Amino acid sequence: MVEQQEASDDAVMTRIGQAIMLLHGGDREEARNRFGALWSELGADGDALHRCTLAHYMADTQDDPGDELAWDLRALTAADGLRAADGPGGGEGPGGARAAEHRDTPAVRAFYPSLHLNLAADYLKLQRPESARIHLQRARAAAVSLADDGYGGGVRAAIDRLELRMREE
Question: Which phi and psi angles does 83 have, rounded to 5°?
Fold first, then answer.
């Protein structure tokens, strides 16, 4: 049963990855369609890492800044669900026990700087600078836990660029 669940999880991440490739290849509409179908399949009690990853990238397919914000908030909610399940007394509620045991919890934590950075950018687009500043501060605070690798450096550089842009506006 565990092997079957792991194979199922891998299949979902493969499908998410395929949609991400479409997005990065410039086919936003098809990526949005595939993400939407997967989101419906996962449901509210689906795996938090899957929901976080999917919503994080689904936000990038949106044309409307309000819709982009809504998807980025869904990604943060999914990540927060894993964090809550991972802490003291975690594992309560729907999907909580599975989330508490999830082997990819550190991967979700590594998403936090990017999640908050995206929210800061969303709020800036929506002309809500105070909310943007709050999330930019959260992104910077979360970024201290990132490795000094390409991903970590890229996220920190993006935080710096957005901060500079906000100062200039």
Answer: -65, -45
